[in-house]
Amino acid sequence: MSGAVRILLVEDDLDIANALIPALRRYGLVVTHVRTAAEALAADPGDLVLLDLGLPDGDGINVCRQIRTVSDVPVIAVTARGEAADRVRGLRSGADDYVVKPFAISELLARIDAVLRRTGLLQPRPRVKVGDLTVDIEARTVEVADKQITLTRKEFDVLAVLASHHGRVVPREQVALYAWQSVFEASSRTMDVHVASLRAKLGRPELVQTIRGVGYRLGAD
């Protein structure tokens, strides 16, 4: 993900904002923080808006609707309102995704990544080379030492998301969203089985590194 991606964080709780901002910046995002509905509507929305729905001067649902009247910028609602009816209201107001507090920062980053990819703002690199491994994401082909390797669809999807972020740690939740379209798969043994199979087929187990408690990284030591 490029540092050119700009995030407008609308969050009145300073404790939450102070925890989120450094994590978002470490991920390569440029963050602007505002605390009220009025400030949110006056600010440049950037490339994506993280919108708290419980603001001191107005309902975030209305803020989302007003943003939608003037812009198609992606919006992720971030809120403590976790009931199904609240989710429906948030999505119908124009939000692209809905994250319920408390949440893991890795899940939020995964959802940001997924929304940016769906909206075309995040384009994966079409071809990645690591040592003698070549991953062509658009053609969905993999070669090791100029020999083509056959992977299952899920194995390739796991490799593709790691290749798109070559050299960087990819949270399990992000891998799950890309390969399974669900963060719930992140805690499943299914992912571990696919990663183990991927390593065996590549014959380069050191390239797919496990970062314990976080996720995976594609890169040579």
Question: Mind explaining what this structure looks like?
Answer:
There is one protein chain. The protein is an alpha/beta fold. It has helices at 14-26, 37-42, 60-70, 84-92, 105-118, 153-164, 172-180, 189-202, and strands at residues 6-10, 30-34, 48-52, 54-55, 58-59, 75-79, 97-100, 127-130, 133-136, 141-144, 147-149, 170-171, 208-211, 215-218. A five-stranded parallel β-sheet has the order 2-1-3-6-7, with helices on both faces. Strands 8-9-10-11 form a four-stranded antiparallel β-sheet, with helices on one face. Helix 5 packs parallel to helix 7 (172-180) and helix 6 (153-164) crosses helix 7. The longest helix is centred in the middle third of the chain and has 14 residues, at 105-118. The protein is elongated. The relative contact order is 0.10.
Provide a brief overview of the structure:
The protein has helices at residues 14-26, 37-42, 60-70, 84-92, 105-118, 153-164, 172-180, 189-202, and strands at 6-10, 30-34, 48-52, 54-55, 58-59, 75-79, 97-100, 127-130, 133-136, 141-144, 147-149, 170-171, 208-211, 215-218. It has 221 residues and is α/β, with parallel strands linked by helices. Strand 4 and strand 5 (58-59) form a beta hairpin.
Protein traits:
5-stranded parallel beta sheet; 221 residues; single chain; 24% strand; alpha/beta; 4-stranded antiparallel beta sheet; 40% helix; 8 helices
